[in-house]
Amino acid sequence: MTKEVSHSYYKELIDLQDVKEVEAQIQSLLDIPITSVTDLEKWLKEERKFMIKIEEAMTGHQVDFYRNTEDESIKTIYLHDQQVVQPLLMKYEAKLNEKLCESPYFHQLDETRYGLMRRVRESKIKLFREENIPLKVKEQELSTKYSEIMGGLTVEWEGEEKPFPFIQAQLDHLDRAVREKAYKKMGTAFRQIKPEMDALMDELIQLRHQIALNSGFENYRDYMFVAKNREYSVQDCYEFHENVEKHIIPAWNRLAAIFKSKLGVDTYRPWDNSAKLMKKPPYSEVSALMDGVTEMLGKTDPYFADRFNHMRENGLLDLGERKGKSPGGFCTFLPVSGDTFVFANFSPSFFSLIALIHEMGHAVNGYLEFSEHGPIERYQLRSEVAELYSHGMELLLLDKLDRFYPDEEDFKSAQREELRRAFTMLFGPLSGDLFQHWMYTNPNHTAKERDEKYYEISKRYGLNPVDTSGLEEEVGMSWAGTIHYFQYPFYNIEYSMSMLGALQLLENYRSNPERTVEAFKKGAGADYNQSIAAIYEETGVSFDFSEPAVKRMGEFLEKIIQDID
Protein backbone atom coordinates (compact mmCIF):
# COMPACT_ATOMS: atom_id res chain seq x y z
CA MET A 1 0.00 0.00 0.00
CA THR A 2 1.43 3.41 -0.93
CA LYS A 3 2.11 5.63 2.06
CA GLU A 4 1.46 9.38 1.80
CA VAL A 5 3.54 11.63 4.03
CA SER A 6 3.20 15.40 4.22
CA HIS A 7 6.42 17.41 4.37
CA SER A 8 6.89 21.14 4.64
CA TYR A 9 8.59 21.39 1.27
CA TYR A 10 8.00 18.16 -0.66
CA LYS A 11 5.39 15.46 -1.13
CA GLU A 12 6.12 11.82 -0.45
CA LEU A 13 3.44 10.00 -2.43
CA ILE A 14 5.26 6.67 -2.59
CA ASP A 15 6.86 4.59 0.14
CA LEU A 16 10.37 3.90 -1.11
CA GLN A 17 11.01 1.64 1.87
CA ASP A 18 8.47 -0.79 0.40
CA VAL A 19 10.73 -1.97 -2.41
CA LYS A 20 8.43 -4.84 -3.44
CA GLU A 21 5.55 -2.43 -4.03
CA VAL A 22 7.78 -0.05 -6.00
CA GLU A 23 8.95 -2.95 -8.14
CA ALA A 24 5.36 -4.19 -8.64
CA GLN A 25 4.27 -0.76 -9.87
CA ILE A 26 7.13 -0.60 -12.36
CA GLN A 27 6.32 -4.11 -13.56
CA SER A 28 2.71 -3.06 -14.12
CA LEU A 29 4.00 -0.39 -16.51
CA LEU A 30 5.97 -3.01 -18.40
CA ASP A 31 2.86 -5.16 -18.70
CA ILE A 32 0.69 -2.50 -20.36
CA PRO A 33 -0.02 -3.47 -24.01
CA ILE A 34 0.76 -0.87 -26.68
CA THR A 35 -1.07 -1.26 -29.98
CA SER A 36 -0.96 2.26 -31.44
CA VAL A 37 0.85 5.60 -31.30
CA THR A 38 -1.97 6.87 -29.08
CA ASP A 39 -1.38 3.96 -26.69
CA LEU A 40 2.33 4.75 -26.64
CA GLU A 41 1.69 8.40 -25.77
CA LYS A 42 -0.70 7.37 -22.98
CA TRP A 43 1.93 4.93 -21.70
CA LEU A 44 4.56 7.68 -21.63
CA LYS A 45 2.21 9.83 -19.53
CA GLU A 46 1.59 6.98 -17.08
CA GLU A 47 5.30 6.28 -16.86
CA ARG A 48 6.03 9.95 -16.16
CA LYS A 49 3.27 10.23 -13.56
CA PHE A 50 4.77 7.31 -11.65
CA MET A 51 8.41 8.37 -12.03
CA ILE A 52 7.89 11.91 -10.74
CA LYS A 53 6.55 10.47 -7.47
CA ILE A 54 9.83 8.65 -7.02
CA GLU A 55 11.81 11.66 -8.21
CA GLU A 56 10.20 14.04 -5.71
CA ALA A 57 10.61 11.64 -2.77
CA MET A 58 14.27 10.99 -3.58
CA THR A 59 14.95 14.69 -4.13
CA GLY A 60 13.34 15.49 -0.78
CA HIS A 61 15.44 12.86 0.98
CA GLN A 62 18.58 14.23 -0.65
CA VAL A 63 17.78 17.79 0.43
CA ASP A 64 17.06 16.52 3.96
CA PHE A 65 20.52 14.93 4.03
CA TYR A 66 22.31 17.99 2.64
CA ARG A 67 20.59 20.11 5.28
CA ASN A 68 21.84 17.86 8.08
CA THR A 69 24.56 15.39 7.18
CA GLU A 70 25.01 14.42 10.86
CA ASP A 71 21.46 13.09 11.45
CA GLU A 72 21.74 9.30 11.30
CA SER A 73 18.04 8.66 10.61
CA ILE A 74 18.05 11.09 7.67
CA LYS A 75 21.28 9.58 6.39
CA THR A 76 19.80 6.07 6.61
CA ILE A 77 16.83 7.07 4.45
CA TYR A 78 19.08 8.80 1.93
CA LEU A 79 21.45 5.83 1.72
CA HIS A 80 18.52 3.45 1.27
CA ASP A 81 17.53 5.49 -1.77
CA GLN A 82 21.07 5.33 -3.16
CA GLN A 83 21.92 1.73 -2.28
CA VAL A 84 18.56 -0.01 -2.76
CA VAL A 85 16.12 2.13 -4.75
CA GLN A 86 18.59 3.58 -7.26
CA PRO A 87 19.93 0.17 -8.39
CA LEU A 88 16.35 -1.05 -8.80
CA LEU A 89 15.53 2.00 -10.91
CA MET A 90 18.64 1.51 -13.06
CA LYS A 91 17.63 -2.08 -13.75
CA TYR A 92 14.02 -1.24 -14.60
CA GLU A 93 14.86 1.97 -16.45
CA ALA A 94 16.70 -0.21 -18.95
CA LYS A 95 13.61 -2.42 -19.34
CA LEU A 96 11.33 0.61 -19.75
CA ASN A 97 13.69 2.07 -22.35
CA GLU A 98 13.68 -1.21 -24.25
CA LYS A 99 9.88 -1.40 -24.19
CA LEU A 100 9.68 2.12 -25.57
CA CYS A 101 12.43 1.95 -28.17
CA GLU A 102 11.45 -1.49 -29.45
CA SER A 103 7.84 -0.47 -29.96
CA PRO A 104 6.91 -0.37 -33.67
CA TYR A 105 5.30 3.02 -32.94
CA PHE A 106 8.42 4.59 -31.40
CA HIS A 107 9.53 6.36 -34.58
CA GLN A 108 5.98 7.49 -35.31
CA LEU A 109 6.06 9.81 -32.28
CA ASP A 110 5.98 13.49 -33.23
CA GLU A 111 9.56 14.72 -33.77
CA THR A 112 8.93 18.21 -32.40
CA ARG A 113 7.50 16.91 -29.14
CA TYR A 114 9.43 13.68 -28.66
CA GLY A 115 12.60 13.99 -30.75
CA LEU A 116 14.91 14.88 -27.87
CA MET A 117 13.39 12.21 -25.65
CA ARG A 118 13.91 9.58 -28.36
CA ARG A 119 17.58 10.46 -28.76
CA VAL A 120 18.19 10.48 -25.01
CA ARG A 121 16.53 7.14 -24.39
CA GLU A 122 18.29 5.49 -27.32
CA SER A 123 21.61 6.69 -25.89
CA LYS A 124 20.65 5.25 -22.49
CA ILE A 125 20.16 1.85 -24.09
CA LYS A 126 23.55 2.22 -25.74
CA LEU A 127 25.23 3.02 -22.41
CA PHE A 128 23.44 0.58 -20.11
CA ARG A 129 25.41 -2.36 -18.73
CA GLU A 130 24.07 -4.34 -15.78
CA GLU A 131 27.59 -4.71 -14.37
CA ASN A 132 27.74 -0.91 -13.99
CA ILE A 133 24.87 -0.81 -11.49
CA PRO A 134 26.96 -1.72 -8.40
CA LEU A 135 29.72 0.59 -9.62
CA LYS A 136 27.29 3.51 -9.80
CA VAL A 137 25.96 2.70 -6.33
CA LYS A 138 29.51 2.79 -5.01
CA GLU A 139 30.10 6.06 -6.86
CA GLN A 140 27.12 7.59 -5.05
CA GLU A 141 28.39 6.33 -1.69
CA LEU A 142 31.72 8.04 -2.30
CA SER A 143 29.97 11.28 -3.32
CA THR A 144 27.97 11.12 -0.09
CA LYS A 145 31.19 10.70 1.87
CA TYR A 146 32.47 13.94 0.33
CA SER A 147 29.41 15.84 1.62
CA GLU A 148 29.92 14.38 5.09
CA ILE A 149 33.58 15.38 5.21
CA MET A 150 32.96 18.93 3.97
CA GLY A 151 29.79 19.34 6.03
CA GLY A 152 31.71 18.55 9.20
CA LEU A 153 34.77 20.67 8.34
CA THR A 154 35.42 23.41 10.89
CA VAL A 155 38.29 25.84 11.39
CA GLU A 156 39.58 27.53 14.53
CA TRP A 157 39.23 31.31 14.23
CA GLU A 158 40.15 33.67 17.06
CA GLY A 159 39.59 31.00 19.67
CA GLU A 160 36.28 29.74 18.24
CA GLU A 161 35.37 26.76 16.08
CA LYS A 162 33.79 28.12 12.90
CA PRO A 163 32.12 26.36 9.91
CA PHE A 164 34.27 26.32 6.80
CA PRO A 165 31.99 28.78 4.89
CA PHE A 166 32.71 31.41 7.58
CA ILE A 167 36.43 31.22 6.80
CA GLN A 168 35.77 31.39 3.07
CA ALA A 169 33.77 34.59 3.61
CA GLN A 170 36.79 36.24 5.26
CA LEU A 171 38.51 36.28 1.87
CA ASP A 172 36.24 39.23 1.07
CA HIS A 173 37.66 41.32 3.90
CA LEU A 174 39.13 44.75 3.24
CA ASP A 175 41.98 44.06 5.68
CA ARG A 176 44.69 42.23 3.78
CA ALA A 177 46.02 40.58 6.94
CA VAL A 178 42.56 39.03 7.59
CA ARG A 179 42.38 37.73 4.01
CA GLU A 180 45.84 36.18 4.23
CA LYS A 181 45.02 34.58 7.57
CA ALA A 182 41.77 33.11 6.13
CA TYR A 183 43.55 31.79 3.03
CA LYS A 184 46.19 30.04 5.11
CA LYS A 185 43.58 28.66 7.55
CA MET A 186 41.76 27.17 4.55
CA GLY A 187 45.02 25.62 3.39
CA THR A 188 45.55 24.07 6.82
CA ALA A 189 42.01 22.68 6.79
CA PHE A 190 42.45 21.18 3.32
CA ARG A 191 45.79 19.69 4.32
CA GLN A 192 44.08 17.85 7.19
CA ILE A 193 41.45 16.23 4.95
CA LYS A 194 43.68 15.86 1.88
CA PRO A 195 44.48 12.13 2.40
CA GLU A 196 40.74 11.36 2.55
CA MET A 197 40.03 13.52 -0.49
CA ASP A 198 42.82 11.90 -2.48
CA ALA A 199 41.56 8.43 -1.60
CA LEU A 200 37.99 9.40 -2.58
CA MET A 201 39.05 10.89 -5.90
CA ASP A 202 41.39 8.00 -6.72
CA GLU A 203 38.56 5.53 -6.19
CA LEU A 204 36.02 7.66 -8.08
CA ILE A 205 38.31 7.94 -11.10
CA GLN A 206 38.88 4.19 -11.22
CA LEU A 207 35.16 3.45 -10.80
CA ARG A 208 34.21 5.89 -13.52
CA HIS A 209 36.91 4.59 -15.83
CA GLN A 210 35.59 1.05 -15.39
CA ILE A 211 32.02 2.20 -16.05
CA ALA A 212 33.24 3.70 -19.33
CA LEU A 213 35.19 0.59 -20.31
CA ASN A 214 32.19 -1.63 -19.55
CA SER A 215 30.09 0.53 -21.88
CA GLY A 216 32.57 0.26 -24.74
CA PHE A 217 34.40 3.58 -24.36
CA GLU A 218 38.13 4.24 -24.09
CA ASN A 219 37.70 6.66 -21.21
CA TYR A 220 35.11 8.28 -18.96
CA ARG A 221 35.36 11.64 -20.77
CA ASP A 222 34.06 10.13 -24.00
CA TYR A 223 31.40 8.19 -22.08
CA MET A 224 30.13 11.39 -20.42
CA PHE A 225 29.77 13.25 -23.71
CA VAL A 226 27.27 10.60 -24.78
CA ALA A 227 25.64 10.35 -21.33
CA LYS A 228 25.08 14.12 -21.28
CA ASN A 229 23.80 14.12 -24.88
CA ARG A 230 26.02 17.07 -25.68
CA GLU A 231 25.29 19.06 -28.79
CA TYR A 232 28.97 19.83 -29.36
CA SER A 233 32.17 17.76 -29.57
CA VAL A 234 35.30 17.20 -27.49
CA GLN A 235 37.23 19.17 -30.12
CA ASP A 236 34.78 22.07 -29.76
CA CYS A 237 35.64 22.17 -26.05
CA TYR A 238 39.39 22.22 -26.71
CA GLU A 239 38.93 25.08 -29.17
CA PHE A 240 36.88 26.96 -26.56
CA HIS A 241 39.72 26.46 -24.04
CA GLU A 242 42.15 27.94 -26.56
CA ASN A 243 39.89 30.86 -27.51
CA VAL A 244 39.53 31.88 -23.87
CA GLU A 245 43.25 31.56 -23.23
CA LYS A 246 43.93 33.71 -26.29
CA HIS A 247 41.37 36.49 -25.74
CA ILE A 248 40.09 36.45 -22.15
CA ILE A 249 43.24 35.82 -20.12
CA PRO A 250 45.13 38.86 -21.51
CA ALA A 251 42.11 41.01 -20.62
CA TRP A 252 42.01 39.39 -17.19
CA ASN A 253 45.65 40.34 -16.67
CA ARG A 254 44.89 43.96 -17.61
CA LEU A 255 41.96 44.06 -15.18
CA ALA A 256 44.04 42.44 -12.46
CA ALA A 257 46.45 45.35 -12.71
CA ILE A 258 43.53 47.73 -12.12
CA PHE A 259 42.26 45.73 -9.13
CA LYS A 260 45.78 45.55 -7.70
CA SER A 261 46.07 49.32 -7.98
CA LYS A 262 42.73 49.89 -6.25
CA LEU A 263 43.77 47.55 -3.42
CA GLY A 264 47.02 49.43 -3.08
CA VAL A 265 49.20 46.33 -3.17
CA ASP A 266 52.49 45.82 -4.99
CA THR A 267 52.15 42.07 -5.38
CA TYR A 268 48.88 40.38 -6.33
CA ARG A 269 48.65 37.34 -4.06
CA PRO A 270 45.91 34.65 -3.97
CA TRP A 271 44.16 36.35 -1.05
CA ASP A 272 44.05 39.58 -3.07
CA ASN A 273 42.41 37.85 -6.02
CA SER A 274 39.17 37.53 -4.03
CA ALA A 275 39.32 40.80 -2.09
CA LYS A 276 36.29 43.07 -2.11
CA LEU A 277 36.48 46.84 -1.79
CA MET A 278 33.07 47.16 -0.12
CA LYS A 279 33.38 48.27 3.51
CA LYS A 280 31.34 45.49 5.08
CA PRO A 281 29.29 42.36 4.27
CA PRO A 282 25.96 43.14 2.55
CA TYR A 283 23.87 41.75 5.45
CA SER A 284 24.25 40.16 8.86
CA GLU A 285 21.03 38.14 9.16
CA VAL A 286 19.45 35.83 6.59
CA SER A 287 16.12 37.66 6.96
CA ALA A 288 17.79 40.88 5.80
CA LEU A 289 19.27 39.03 2.83
CA MET A 290 15.83 37.77 1.82
CA ASP A 291 14.19 41.18 2.30
CA GLY A 292 16.74 42.85 0.04
CA VAL A 293 16.67 40.21 -2.67
CA THR A 294 12.86 40.43 -2.75
CA GLU A 295 13.14 44.14 -3.54
CA MET A 296 15.80 43.62 -6.21
CA LEU A 297 13.76 40.93 -7.93
CA GLY A 298 10.59 43.02 -7.74
CA LYS A 299 12.25 46.01 -9.36
CA THR A 300 13.32 43.76 -12.24
CA ASP A 301 9.97 42.00 -12.71
CA PRO A 302 7.04 41.45 -10.28
CA TYR A 303 6.87 37.76 -11.21
CA PHE A 304 10.41 37.21 -9.96
CA ALA A 305 9.56 38.63 -6.52
CA ASP A 306 6.28 36.73 -6.41
CA ARG A 307 8.10 33.41 -6.85
CA PHE A 308 10.71 34.30 -4.22
CA ASN A 309 8.04 35.27 -1.69
CA HIS A 310 6.17 32.04 -2.42
CA MET A 311 9.33 30.06 -1.68
CA ARG A 312 10.03 32.05 1.47
CA GLU A 313 6.52 31.51 2.81
CA ASN A 314 6.50 27.79 2.05
CA GLY A 315 9.79 26.65 3.52
CA LEU A 316 11.52 26.31 0.16
CA LEU A 317 14.66 28.23 1.15
CA ASP A 318 17.49 27.13 3.46
CA LEU A 319 20.14 29.84 3.33
CA GLY A 320 21.89 29.96 6.71
CA GLU A 321 25.28 28.51 7.57
CA ARG A 322 25.63 25.81 10.23
CA LYS A 323 27.81 22.88 11.16
CA GLY A 324 26.76 19.58 9.61
CA LYS A 325 25.23 21.23 6.58
CA SER A 326 26.61 20.21 3.19
CA PRO A 327 28.77 22.83 1.44
CA GLY A 328 27.80 24.97 -1.53
CA GLY A 329 24.47 25.95 -2.98
CA PHE A 330 21.97 24.62 -5.46
CA CYS A 331 18.41 24.83 -6.73
CA THR A 332 16.43 21.63 -7.22
CA PHE A 333 13.02 20.91 -8.71
CA LEU A 334 10.09 19.12 -7.07
CA PRO A 335 8.06 17.76 -10.00
CA VAL A 336 4.95 16.67 -8.08
CA SER A 337 4.63 19.86 -6.05
CA GLY A 338 5.55 22.09 -8.98
CA ASP A 339 8.01 23.89 -6.72
CA THR A 340 11.71 24.58 -6.48
CA PHE A 341 13.96 24.46 -3.42
CA VAL A 342 17.04 26.64 -2.94
CA PHE A 343 19.81 25.45 -0.63
CA ALA A 344 22.86 27.52 0.32
CA ASN A 345 25.53 27.24 2.98
CA PHE A 346 27.44 30.52 2.88
CA SER A 347 28.48 33.07 5.47
CA PRO A 348 27.35 36.70 5.01
CA SER A 349 29.38 37.93 2.05
CA PHE A 350 29.07 39.41 -1.40
CA PHE A 351 29.29 35.90 -2.85
CA SER A 352 26.41 34.62 -0.72
CA LEU A 353 24.22 37.45 -2.02
CA ILE A 354 25.13 36.68 -5.63
CA ALA A 355 24.74 32.94 -5.06
CA LEU A 356 21.14 33.44 -3.92
CA ILE A 357 20.36 35.62 -6.96
CA HIS A 358 22.01 32.98 -9.17
CA GLU A 359 19.88 30.17 -7.72
CA MET A 360 16.75 32.30 -8.10
CA GLY A 361 17.50 32.40 -11.82
CA HIS A 362 17.22 28.61 -11.76
CA ALA A 363 14.07 28.78 -9.64
CA VAL A 364 12.29 31.23 -11.96
CA ASN A 365 13.29 29.03 -14.90
CA GLY A 366 11.76 26.02 -13.11
CA TYR A 367 8.50 27.78 -12.27
CA LEU A 368 8.06 29.12 -15.79
CA GLU A 369 8.75 25.71 -17.30
CA PHE A 370 6.27 24.06 -14.97
CA SER A 371 3.55 26.62 -15.66
CA GLU A 372 4.02 26.32 -19.42
CA HIS A 373 4.74 22.62 -19.87
CA GLY A 374 4.19 20.75 -16.60
CA PRO A 375 6.95 18.86 -14.77
CA ILE A 376 10.37 19.19 -16.38
CA GLU A 377 11.81 15.84 -17.35
CA ARG A 378 15.43 15.18 -16.43
CA TYR A 379 16.52 14.69 -20.03
CA GLN A 380 15.31 18.22 -20.81
CA LEU A 381 17.50 19.83 -18.14
CA ARG A 382 20.60 20.70 -20.11
CA SER A 383 22.95 22.72 -17.97
CA GLU A 384 24.03 24.94 -20.89
CA VAL A 385 20.43 26.21 -20.84
CA ALA A 386 19.82 26.20 -17.09
CA GLU A 387 22.94 28.27 -16.35
CA LEU A 388 21.93 30.91 -18.91
CA TYR A 389 19.06 31.95 -16.64
CA SER A 390 21.04 31.83 -13.41
CA HIS A 391 23.92 33.91 -14.80
CA GLY A 392 21.38 36.05 -16.61
CA MET A 393 19.50 36.81 -13.39
CA GLU A 394 22.75 37.95 -11.76
CA LEU A 395 23.39 40.44 -14.54
CA LEU A 396 19.79 41.67 -14.78
CA LEU A 397 20.05 42.65 -11.10
CA LEU A 398 23.45 44.31 -11.49
CA ASP A 399 21.97 47.82 -11.45
CA LYS A 400 20.09 47.12 -8.19
CA LEU A 401 23.02 46.18 -5.97
CA ASP A 402 22.65 49.57 -4.29
CA ARG A 403 19.90 47.91 -2.23
CA PHE A 404 22.70 46.27 -0.24
CA TYR A 405 25.40 48.84 -0.97
CA PRO A 406 23.76 52.29 -0.65
CA ASP A 407 27.10 54.13 -0.45
CA GLU A 408 27.98 55.23 -4.00
CA GLU A 409 31.55 53.96 -3.90
CA ASP A 410 30.46 50.64 -2.40
CA PHE A 411 27.79 50.34 -5.10
CA LYS A 412 30.37 50.85 -7.84
CA SER A 413 32.69 48.36 -6.17
CA ALA A 414 29.86 45.81 -5.94
CA GLN A 415 29.08 46.23 -9.64
CA ARG A 416 32.76 45.76 -10.48
CA GLU A 417 32.81 42.62 -8.35
CA GLU A 418 29.82 41.11 -10.13
CA LEU A 419 31.37 41.89 -13.50
CA ARG A 420 34.69 40.52 -12.32
CA ARG A 421 32.81 37.36 -11.32
CA ALA A 422 31.40 37.24 -14.85
CA PHE A 423 34.96 37.36 -16.11
CA THR A 424 36.03 34.54 -13.81
CA MET A 425 33.10 32.44 -15.03
CA LEU A 426 34.53 32.66 -18.54
CA PHE A 427 37.72 30.89 -17.51
CA GLY A 428 37.34 29.31 -14.04
CA PRO A 429 34.84 26.55 -14.91
CA LEU A 430 36.54 26.14 -18.27
CA SER A 431 39.88 25.42 -16.56
CA GLY A 432 38.03 22.95 -14.33
CA ASP A 433 36.74 21.26 -17.47
CA LEU A 434 40.27 20.98 -18.86
CA PHE A 435 41.39 19.51 -15.53
CA GLN A 436 38.74 16.80 -15.80
CA HIS A 437 39.64 16.05 -19.42
CA TRP A 438 43.16 15.38 -18.18
CA MET A 439 42.08 13.34 -15.12
CA TYR A 440 39.81 10.97 -16.99
CA THR A 441 42.00 10.48 -20.06
CA ASN A 442 44.92 9.75 -17.70
CA PRO A 443 43.10 7.61 -15.11
CA ASN A 444 46.27 6.08 -13.60
CA HIS A 445 47.78 9.39 -12.49
CA THR A 446 49.01 9.83 -8.93
CA ALA A 447 47.69 12.29 -6.34
CA LYS A 448 50.92 14.28 -6.70
CA GLU A 449 50.53 14.47 -10.48
CA ARG A 450 46.89 15.58 -10.03
CA ASP A 451 47.91 18.45 -7.76
CA GLU A 452 50.69 19.48 -10.15
CA LYS A 453 48.30 19.45 -13.13
CA TYR A 454 45.71 21.50 -11.23
CA TYR A 455 48.38 24.06 -10.34
CA GLU A 456 49.60 24.22 -13.95
CA ILE A 457 46.08 24.76 -15.34
CA SER A 458 45.24 27.32 -12.63
CA LYS A 459 48.32 29.35 -13.56
CA ARG A 460 47.36 29.28 -17.24
CA TYR A 461 43.92 30.69 -16.47
CA GLY A 462 42.58 32.34 -13.29
CA LEU A 463 45.87 32.64 -11.42
CA ASN A 464 47.80 33.87 -14.46
CA PRO A 465 48.31 37.37 -12.99
CA VAL A 466 48.71 36.16 -9.38
CA ASP A 467 51.98 35.65 -7.50
CA THR A 468 51.68 32.11 -6.12
CA SER A 469 55.33 31.71 -5.07
CA GLY A 470 55.59 29.61 -1.93
CA LEU A 471 51.95 28.57 -2.24
CA GLU A 472 52.22 25.91 -4.92
CA GLU A 473 51.00 23.20 -2.55
CA GLU A 474 47.98 25.23 -1.38
CA VAL A 475 46.92 26.02 -4.94
CA GLY A 476 47.58 22.49 -6.16
CA MET A 477 45.37 20.84 -3.55
CA SER A 478 42.56 23.41 -3.67
CA TRP A 479 40.66 21.29 -6.24
CA ALA A 480 39.43 19.32 -3.22
CA GLY A 481 37.08 22.17 -2.36
CA THR A 482 35.15 21.90 -5.64
CA ILE A 483 32.06 19.74 -5.19
CA HIS A 484 31.58 19.27 -8.94
CA TYR A 485 34.67 17.09 -9.31
CA PHE A 486 33.22 14.64 -6.80
CA GLN A 487 29.47 14.76 -7.35
CA TYR A 488 28.86 16.32 -10.78
CA PRO A 489 31.66 15.23 -13.13
CA PHE A 490 31.98 17.24 -16.35
CA TYR A 491 29.52 19.86 -15.12
CA ASN A 492 31.85 22.83 -15.59
CA ILE A 493 32.28 24.14 -19.11
CA GLU A 494 28.54 24.83 -19.31
CA TYR A 495 29.01 27.73 -16.87
CA SER A 496 31.46 29.39 -19.27
CA MET A 497 29.34 28.76 -22.35
CA SER A 498 26.21 30.13 -20.72
CA MET A 499 28.04 33.19 -19.37
CA LEU A 500 28.65 34.24 -22.98
CA GLY A 501 24.87 34.14 -23.46
CA ALA A 502 24.24 35.98 -20.18
CA LEU A 503 26.60 38.78 -21.23
CA GLN A 504 24.53 39.17 -24.38
CA LEU A 505 21.49 39.53 -22.12
CA LEU A 506 23.27 42.29 -20.21
CA GLU A 507 24.16 43.99 -23.48
CA ASN A 508 20.48 43.83 -24.53
CA TYR A 509 19.28 44.98 -21.11
CA ARG A 510 21.41 48.11 -21.23
CA SER A 511 19.62 49.04 -24.48
CA ASN A 512 16.08 47.92 -23.65
CA PRO A 513 15.40 46.58 -20.11
CA GLU A 514 11.71 45.72 -20.56
CA ARG A 515 12.15 43.85 -23.82
CA THR A 516 15.14 41.93 -22.43
CA VAL A 517 13.28 40.81 -19.30
CA GLU A 518 10.37 39.63 -21.43
CA ALA A 519 12.78 37.70 -23.67
CA PHE A 520 14.37 36.20 -20.55
CA LYS A 521 10.97 34.98 -19.35
CA LYS A 522 10.02 33.70 -22.79
CA GLY A 523 13.21 31.66 -23.07
CA ALA A 524 12.97 30.44 -19.47
CA GLY A 525 9.53 29.04 -20.27
CA ALA A 526 10.39 27.78 -23.76
CA ASP A 527 9.80 24.25 -24.98
CA TYR A 528 12.86 22.38 -23.73
CA ASN A 529 12.53 19.78 -26.49
CA GLN A 530 14.23 22.27 -28.79
CA SER A 531 17.97 22.46 -29.41
CA ILE A 532 20.08 24.57 -27.09
CA ALA A 533 20.59 27.10 -29.88
CA ALA A 534 16.83 27.42 -30.44
CA ILE A 535 16.17 28.10 -26.73
CA TYR A 536 18.93 30.72 -26.66
CA GLU A 537 17.37 32.33 -29.72
CA GLU A 538 14.01 32.56 -27.93
CA THR A 539 15.87 34.35 -25.14
CA GLY A 540 17.21 36.89 -27.61
CA VAL A 541 20.83 35.66 -27.56
CA SER A 542 23.08 33.20 -29.45
CA PHE A 543 24.57 29.90 -28.31
CA ASP A 544 28.00 30.70 -29.68
CA PHE A 545 31.43 30.07 -28.15
CA SER A 546 33.44 30.54 -31.35
CA GLU A 547 36.55 32.71 -31.35
CA PRO A 548 34.75 35.85 -32.63
CA ALA A 549 32.05 35.48 -29.96
CA VAL A 550 34.58 35.00 -27.17
CA LYS A 551 36.61 37.99 -28.35
CA ARG A 552 33.55 40.27 -28.67
CA MET A 553 32.08 39.42 -25.27
CA GLY A 554 35.48 39.74 -23.60
CA GLU A 555 35.90 43.23 -25.06
CA PHE A 556 32.36 44.19 -24.01
CA LEU A 557 32.90 43.00 -20.46
CA GLU A 558 36.30 44.64 -20.08
CA LYS A 559 34.90 47.97 -21.33
CA ILE A 560 31.92 48.11 -18.97
CA ILE A 561 34.17 47.29 -16.00
CA GLN A 562 36.53 50.10 -16.99
CA ASP A 563 33.58 52.48 -17.49
CA ILE A 564 32.62 52.22 -13.79
CA ASP A 565 34.63 55.05 -12.25
Automatic annotation (TrEMBL):
Peptidase M3A/M3B catalytic domain mapped to chain residues: 174-527
Signal peptide: none
Keyword vocabulary terms for this entry: Hydrolase, Metal-binding, Metalloprotease, Protease, Zinc
Names of required cofactors: Zn(2+)
Residue ranges of coiled coil: none
Pfam family, one: Peptidase_M3
GO MF term set: metal ion binding; metalloendopeptidase activity
Designated name of the protein: M3 family oligoendopeptidase
Native species: Robertmurraya siralis
